[in-house]
Known about the structure:
single chain, about 400 residues, alpha/beta, seven-stranded mixed sheet
Amino acid sequence: xxxxxxxxxxxLLLSHxxxxxxRAETIKALLYSDGGxxxxxxxxxxxxxxxxxxxxxLDSKTYVAPGLIDVQINGYMGxxxxxxxxxxxxxxxxxxxxxxxxxxxYYPTIITSDIERIKKNFAILAEARKDxxxxxxxxxxxxxxxxxxxxxxxxxxxxxxxxxxPDWEEFQAIQKAAENGIxxxxxxxxxxxxxxxxxxCVDSGVIVSLGHHNGSAxxxxxxxxxxxxxxxxxxxxxxxxxxxxxxPIWPQLSNDAITxxxxxxxxxxxxxxxxxxxxxxxxxxxxxVSDALDLAGLPxxxxxxxxxxxxxxxxxxxxxxxxxxxxxxxxxxxxVGVVMDYTQCSLKEGIQMASTNPAALxxxxxxxEIQQGKRADLIVFTMENKQIxxxxxxxxGQLVYSEN
Length: 404
């Protein structure tokens, strides 16, 4: 090799190094896990370095944490993932709005509906997942229903006429429309055929969560034995009046194999419920979800969605006809502040339940932690009045939202 060739190679190498340095970005903030000042270096899509620094280098008391991961969200800012007007552009609108709320990954959730509508909307979500701008924020989808309890109260706001027993061939058709994007399904274990259906889902790589059900302790145990590992919004999707001894809550709460997701928005569960669930499950077995509807972020009032008339209050979404809650009006970032207030858990534990735990459960190995080599899905925020206020959001190392 000639000296001229070596020289050219060195010039090219130095140019690549310079370009990499220009692409690199540094975040200086308090680390969410211990409050110490750090400098987090990003290059390309990855975290390439984490260094402790003097807190005097910080301009304000901002924190840096892994981006939030919401595994149950029905829609946002007027975009309904189960609605008749879903398009890739509308999914893009919802995704960008969620970035502002600190959600860097989410599982669009489609609820009980006409099967053809379900398949059509999953096909649209599958296209959105391929989109280079927003696809990295959609690791998969959540199917909530239609294989749930038809009983009033337990079915929540799901329309009874579309509820049915599990059907494996039907689910395979739905999964095909979703291009195998369904990673989570919520169902009722007491339905006919549910237990073998759970086993088939698990064998195919789909996580099974129990929800909107009136299953007995035996039903729950059989479901766990078949591979179910989650409870969907524990304490909700449940009748207002239940037997104090024999009900769906105790078997799920007491079973160590089940990770419970909870809606800690300050309205779906009481403070005492959140504290009790947190104490029983612990940080490791609790996941925060928003269960937000498309009405989240819109002005309060009465809205017609498909065949349902819903009432949006400043706090929650109600289905007056059934006298039940229909969903949440707040993003998961609010749930972090509420669970910290209710349980007195640390910021580290709040973020763990909203990011680290879902990343681990869904095997999103690049996400949920701030570590060198992990994907740079990060949020920069302040804590104001016990609530997270997002300043910046990064997805795959790119700044996708900035408050300023």
